[in-house]
């Protein structure tokens, strides 16, 4: 379960990745990196599970992939090398 502040359809651009190989089309591209939210509801309730979902979009085939939240947080802080070819996973519904 996820609680978001503001518009839940809001997507923010986080920049472009370094050149990676797309698992769908096999081309080397710079993925666009996006996240679903920037703000969290801070509470000490164990029932709340708020996570930022980072997803990458291939500019060639429009394939959509995700990375772990820790990798996305590092990327957001300016560490472009935190996302590599082996970090890309299929995006699941959330």
Fold and architecture overview:
9% of the residues lie in helices and 30% in strands. The chain is built from one helix and five strands. It has one helix at 69-76; strands spanning 12-21, 28-35, 54-57, 64-67, 89-90. Strands 1-2-3-4-5 form a five-stranded antiparallel sheet, with helices on one face. The protein is globular and about 35 Å long.
Task: Give a quick rundown of the structure.
By secondary structure, the chain is mainly beta. It has one helix and five strands.
Order of strands, main sheet, comes to: 1-2-3-4-5
Structural class: mainly beta
Q: Strand content of the residues, in percent? A: 25-35%
Give the helix proportion (percent range): under 10%
Q: End-to-end distance, in Å?
A: 9 Å
> Roughly how many Å is the radius of gyration?
14 Å
Largest sheet: 5 strands, antiparallel
The 3D shape can be described as globular
List segments where confidence is low: pLDDT < 50 over at least 5 consecutive residues.
1-7
Order of helices and strands: EEEEHE
Taking all residues together, what is the mean pLDDT?
Answer: 79
What is the overall number of helices? 1
Q: Tell how many strands the DSSP assignment holds.
A: 5
How would the blueprint of this fold be written?
Elements: E1 12-21, E2 28-35, E3 54-57, E4 64-67, H1 69-76, E5 89-90
Antiparallel strand pairs: 1-2, 2-3, 3-4, 4-5
Key terms:
94 residues; mainly beta; five-stranded antiparallel beta sheet
């Amino acid at each position: 379960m996820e609680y978001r502040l503001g518009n839940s359809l809001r997507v923010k651009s986080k920049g472009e990745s370094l050149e990676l190989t797309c698992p769908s089309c096999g081309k080397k591209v710079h993925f666009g990196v996006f996240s679903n939210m920037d703000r969290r509801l801070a509470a000490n309730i164990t029932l709340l599970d708020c996570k930022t979902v980072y997803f990458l979009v291939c500019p060639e085939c429009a394939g959509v992939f995700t990375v772990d939240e820790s990798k996305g947080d590092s990327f957001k802080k300016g560490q472009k090398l935190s996302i590599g070819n082996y970090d890309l996973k299929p995006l699941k519904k959330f």
